[in-house]
Amino acid sequence: MKLTYLGTAAAEGWPAVFCNCPYCVKAKEKGGKNIRTRSQALVNGNLLIDFPMDSYMHMLQNKLDFSAVEHILFTHSHLDHCSPIDLFFRSEGCYAHNMTSKKAAIYGNAKVKERLDQMILTYGEERYGLGYTVIEPYKPVFVGDYKVTPLKANHMVTEDALVFLIESGGSTLLYLHDTGLPGNEFYEYLSSNKVKADFISYDCTFVSLPGSGGHMGLDTCQTLRENLREIGVVGETTINCVNHFSHNGTLIYDELVPVAKNLGFETSYDGMSVEF
How far is CA 124 from CA 52, 68, 113, in A? Predict the structure, then answer.
């Protein structure tokens, strides 16, 4: 399996759009991997996770064929993960020609469906080849060549925010954004199904600050990793990578890399690809 991080920031981006804090100023000055756009990831070129407002820029920066994406998973309805207006332009004819895949299937919770329904009802589902399936925690779905199990995130009380267990071709990915430390049912599901992860992407929004509420920092990423190690999900060959960073966490990419490495974590950056 190949995972590409298209965007690695929290909602405000880094540097944040209107911010002049020292950490945003420093990121602007240093540039390169210190510049982070809103969170989005691509698996094997045809499975997209989330659709933020930076999706068009991600397509340009990575020279992607977004028409080849056959499946889109949404974690939850927050704007930085679900900004689907550009999906309207997935329309053979005036807006798009010679698309690689004529149709794309969307999977997410009921709140995400509400965000999409008005567009779908207004313009017609067949016009841009989108179908929608409501998915629920701990109920696996088969998405093309992938077995996708939505897991319950600890992120918000107004909807079932989801994180994902994705399995394909003998590889296993745990994609854990956005979430704080998960509840017992999360561990119980992974343990009872004897899940062994090849790659885990950890929410690290708070970076050097203590994790709290619906997000984690380096402290709680370590706690989660050890909890997963105890039940056999994390093994000697598991790649543990932190992702989804807020400028409030203070450490730009250049500063975070050695800190995270010392703790046993890789550090994501926009455009990073990993095969496992």
Answer: 22, 21, 15
Residues 6+ apart with CB under 8 A from 166: 1, 43, 47, 146, 147, 148, 149, 172, 173, 174, 175
Burial class (CB in 10 A: 0-12, 13-18, 19+), 130: buried
How far, CA to CA in Å, does 158 sit from each of 76, 82, 96, 110?
A: 10, 15, 36, 11
At 230, which CATH number? Answer: 3.60.15.10
Nearest to 54 by CA among 272, 270, 276, 274: 270
Region of residue 32 (phi > 0: left; psi between -120 and 50: alpha; otherwise: beta)? left
C-beta of residue 107 within 8 angstroms of C-beta of residue 141: yes
Phi then psi for residue 274, to 5 deg, are -135, 135
What three-state secondary structure class fits 268?
coil
Taking only the tens place, the pLDDT of each residue in 27-76 is: 999 999 999 999 999 999 999 999 999 999 999 999 999 999 999 999 99
Query: 3-class SS at 94?
Result: coil
Q: Are 201 and 276 in contact (CB under 8 A)?
A: no
Residue span of the structural domain in which 267 resides: 2-275
Nearest CA to 40 out of 68, 13, 1, 67 is that of 13
The pTM of the whole model exceeds 0.85: yes
**Which of helix, strand or coil describes residue 144?**
coil
Query: Residue 175's beta-bridge partner residues?
Result: 164, 201
- Do 110 and 85 meet the contact criterion of CB atoms below 8 Å apart? no
How many structural domains does the chain have?
1
| pLDDT reported for residue 85 | 82
Per the DSSP assignment, residues forming a β-bridge with 148 are: 141, 166
Low-confidence stretches of the chain (pLDDT < 70) are: 123-129
Give tens-digit pLDDT for 236-265: 999 999 999 999 999 999 999 999 999 999
